[in-house]
Specification:
Layout: H1 6-13, H2 16-19, E1 22-31, E2 40-43, E3 57-62, E4 67-82, E5 91-92, H3 101-113, H4 118-125, H5 128-133, E6 141-144, H6 161-169, H7 176-183, H8 187-195, E7 199-202, H9 222-237, E8 242-247, H10 253-266, E9 270-274, H11 281-292, E10 295-298, H12 304-315, E11 321-324, E12 336-342, H13 359-370, E13 374-378, H14 383-390, E14 395-399, E15 410-415, H15 429-440, E16 444-448, E17 455-460, E18 477-479, E19 484-486, E20 493-495, E21 508-513, H16 515-525, E22 531-534, H17 544-553, E23 559-562, E24 575-580, H18 594-606, E25 617-622, H19 628-634, H20 638-652, E26 659-667, H21 670-690, E27 699-711, E28 714-723, H22 726-737, E29 747-752
Parallel strand pairs: 8-13, 8-14, 9-11, 9-12, 10-11, 12-13, 15-25, 16-23, 16-24, 22-23, 24-25
Antiparallel strand pairs: 1-2, 1-4, 3-4, 3-5, 6-7, 17-21, 18-19, 19-20, 26-28, 26-29, 27-28
Helix pairs in contact: 3-4, 6-7, 7-8, 9-10, 18-19, 18-20, 19-20, 21-22
Length: 758
């Protein structure tokens, strides 16, 4: 007997026309890498049942034309759907999921946290090299043939100079791309040598060197042991804890990392170690390989095939340690047990293009989700990190002294305002004397100037006209040889003529020095010294970082000139003098972090000196010796700077006491850029006013022209929103920008937690 009334029974069974309208079906939610900011639902056809899974890429029809488009499956569910209206998945791209459920959860969180599209995050987490190489053949490794196919004197096998260079470089198994880069030959030369039998395919090299007795862990100091203890305790107890190693340069932070990783491997887990600069990766990899053998490396200089090979080894659990730059935080470790970020204060951990994530925050999320420890190390922690430790959210472990009995170097500050006028970038008599003292003692010298090029400003003596980029609001930097004026904003190269383009007079003044000019000056002043330069201009070729640093380490270079890439993480015991040629280069930029970065940079580069038995000195040239950032760095007292800076940040509501969201609007039409920035500001203010109670303390600053007002022929306006509660701030910003129809003539970005304000 039915338990329903006739009317209820009608709704239970339903009429035929209603039953036909909806039915149970398997539905996949697909995120597409495009302008859409929400997933689309697609039916899973019977022939693909069980094969469409979260984490795989699938091919689906899109738009009225039903053009095949590859998207990411983020969820699969069985539910009632209309009989018509949903399109079906066409095919799958991957036999296995490329992203785990945890990584899919992470990408959804990142989309909310940094106000970006989910598709952008998925593309960032899964590198192009991995996507493109998912079904492709990896590059084989090559070595010279054991015997030549014909007599050496035969014309058919006579070597060209390029071929001889390739064979000379082939001292170990390498891919064709690696051989071409190392030898300076083209890929075509290598390919022809393979066809002729001069090079043959060999198995991939093993990265497990024998562990020697010298690789045994050294005895830790009392401070190092105290720092390691909370990391190991969290690991044993299966819980998350963030431990900040606040140690002076040379205090043995890396050895703490190494022993924490060793503990991780004992538990059968994997560890990820992030380093800020690509130039630091070889040195760090060397230390980890000598201790543990198998180490996977992930960074931007890998070829797609190499990245795919490493990705597969990591995902298969074949390697216990992953070392890499920012994007290595997404390494697909199935048994993650520890995550380490070395030099955590570095701005390179913040992605400069969408999605504009910070690796430190991503690492914190992963470690919380996996209930594992996170270790952050720095001699100059970011103020956000320092404040979390002061609030008790993170644990700080201090390493106040250098290991091995060495002491921090003495610092001499040279006031550039005293004595005869000199150009920023010149060597003072005190710095010259210091260089000669180090060289005479058999030591090495590092000179930091955070400006590349020869002259940073070109000006006419007669009329005062400055040579600027025709499509940017920036002066051209002179690069030699060839008198090339290069815009460091857009990369445009212009030949600089010896006469002024405005008045026709000869004699252009070259003002301001860059690393190229400094290298020239040092080479002329110290002709007996071997000088090398390390900046973005000289480090373009693959392997150039390693070659330059190896030459310096082996004593083949006496003086190393460079930008900030030489300022951190390098351990050379023979360095007796570090010179900061112009400490004020970034001190007065319109950026609330300018003082913090200056103090960090000087402290870090100063720490490269005095690590050996001969000791060392540091010379800092500055026009503002009384600035708190300079004073603190000169006495190796970063905490003094923190105590000075935190109250200023708190009074202004800047991080770490609030969050900032920055908008940058650009257009080739100056009026369009300004009007759209004003429209954005108006929408944001209306949204804040509508939520007045929860929006307390949130304010909109601007709009105004950006500090670099024109870049790549586009006018730039910016504005920022800041408030004490980041979650509320981001939610209100998202509501304000939802559904915005952007004019075709305008482009704009939103940057949560910006690290540069230019």
């Amino acid at each position: 007997m039915s338990q329903h009334t006739p009317q209820q029974q009608l709704f239970v069974n339903g009429p035929a026309w209603e039953e036909d309208d909806r039915h149970l079906a398997v539905v996949a939610s697909i995120v597409l890498p495009g302008p859409l900011d929400r997933p689309l639902d697609y039916l899973v056809p019977e022939q693909l049942a069980g094969r469409v899974e979260p984490g795989k890429r699938v091919r689906v029809p899109l738009g009225r034309s039903n053009r095949p488009t590859v998207g990411y499956c983020v969820a699969v569910a069985t539910r009632n759907v209309p009989s018509s209206g949903l399109k079906a998945v066409c095919d799958i791209e991957d036999e296995r999921p490329l992203l785990s459920p945890v990584m899919l959860e992470l990408t959804a969180w990142m989309s909310e946290r940094w106000l970006c599209r989910h598709g952008e995050v998925l593309e960032a987490v899964l590198p192009a090299g991995v996507r493109e190489a998912a079904g492709s053949r990896e590059q084989p490794y090559l070595m010279p043939a054991a015997t030549r196919p014909a007599a050496e004197s035969a014309p058919a096998t006579r070597l060209t100079p390029s071929q001889a260079n390739v064979l000379a470089a082939a001292t170990e198994p390498q891919t064709a791309a690696q051989l071409a880069d190392r030898s300076g030959a083209s890929r075509a030369v290598v390919t022809r040598m393979v066809k002729r039998g001069l090079l043959v395919e060999v198995p991939a090299p093993s990265d497990t060197p024998p562990r020697s007795s010298s690789d045994e862990p050294p005895q830790l100091s009392e401070a190092q042991s105290a720092a390691l203890e909370p990391i190991c305790n969290a690991m044993r107890e299966g819980r998350h804890e963030t431990v900040v190693l606040f140690g002076v340069t040379g205090s043995g932070k890396t050895e703490v990392y190494l022993q924490a990783v060793e503990e991780t491997l004992r538990y059968g887990k994997q560890a990820i170690v992030l380093v800020p600069e690509i130039s630091l990766t070889p040195q760090t990899c060397g230390r980890f390989r000598s201790r543990f053998g198998r180490v996977a490396v992930l960074h931007s200089h890998l070829t797609p095939a190499e990245r795919h090979r490493e990705w597969k080894r990591i995902a298969a659990g074949e390697v216990g340690v992953v070392v890499g730059a920012r994007s290595a935080v997404f390494a697909p470790t199935p048994r993650l047990g520890l995550l380490v970020i070395d030099e955590e204060h570095e701005t390179s951990f913040k992605q400069s293009t969408a999605p504009r994530y910070h690796a430190r925050d991503v690492a914190e999320w992963r470690c919380r989700r996996e209930s594992i420890p996170l270790v952050l190390g720095s001699a100059t922690p970011a103020l956000e990190t320092f404040q979390k430790c002061l609030r008790g959210e993170w644990r700080m472990a201090e390493l106040p002294e250098r290991v091995g009995g060495t002491h921090l170097p003495g610092v001499l500050t040279v006031d550039l305002r005293a004595g005869p006028p000199r150009r920023a970038g010149d060597l003072s008599s005190r710095l010259e004397a210091g260089i000669r003292w180090a060289l005479n003692a058999g030591g090495q010298v590092i000179l930091l100037l955070n400006r590349r090029g020869f002259a940073t400003h070109i000006q006419c003596h007669a009329c005062g006209h400055s040579v600027t980029c025709p499509q940017c609001d920036l002066s051209l930097t002179l690069h030699q040889p060839g008198s090339r004026g290069i815009c460091h904003g857009c990369g445009r190269v212009i030949r600089v003529r010896p006469v002024c383009s405005e008045c026709g007079q000869a004699g252009l003044a070259l003002r301001g020095s860059g690393t190229q000019r400094l290298e020239d000056r040092v080479a002329r002043t110290f002709p007996e010294a071997r000088v090398a330069r390390m900046d973005a201009d000289t480090m373009r070729r693959r392997g150039s970082h390693e070659a330059t640093l190896d030459a310096f380490r082996d004593g083949h270079t006496d003086i190393l000139v460079g930008t900030q890439m030489i300022a951190k993480g390098l351990d050379f015991p023979s360095v007796m003098l570090v010179g900061v040629v112009y400490a004020d280069a970034a001190l007065h930029l319109p950026d609330f972090r300018a003082a913090e970065r200056t103090c960090q940079l000087i402290t870090q580069v100063a720490g490269r000196s005095g690590r050996g038995p001969k000791g060392g000195r540091v010379v800092v040239q500055t026009a503002t010796p009384d600035h708190p950032a300079i004073r603190a760095a000169a006495v190796h007292d970063y905490e003094a700077f923190v105590r000075h800076e935190l109250p200023i940040r708190e009074a202004l509501g800047y991080p770490p006491f609030g969050q900032v969201v920055r908008f940058v609007v650009r257009s080739r039409n100056e009026t369009a850029a300004r009007e759209w920035a004003e429209h954005l500001a108006s929408r944001l203010r209306r949204q804040i006013e509508a939520a007045a109670e929860e929006a307390a303390g949130i304010r909109v600053l601007g709009p105004a022209p950006a500090p670099i007002e024109r870049l790549r022929d586009a006018w730039r306006w910016h504005l920022q929103v800041q408030g004490p509660d980041g979650e509320i701030l981001r939610r209100l910003v998202r509501l304000a920008i939802e559904g915005l129809k952007v004019p075709d003539s305008v482009a704009w970005i939103v940057d949560v937690d910006p690290v540069e304000m230019l």
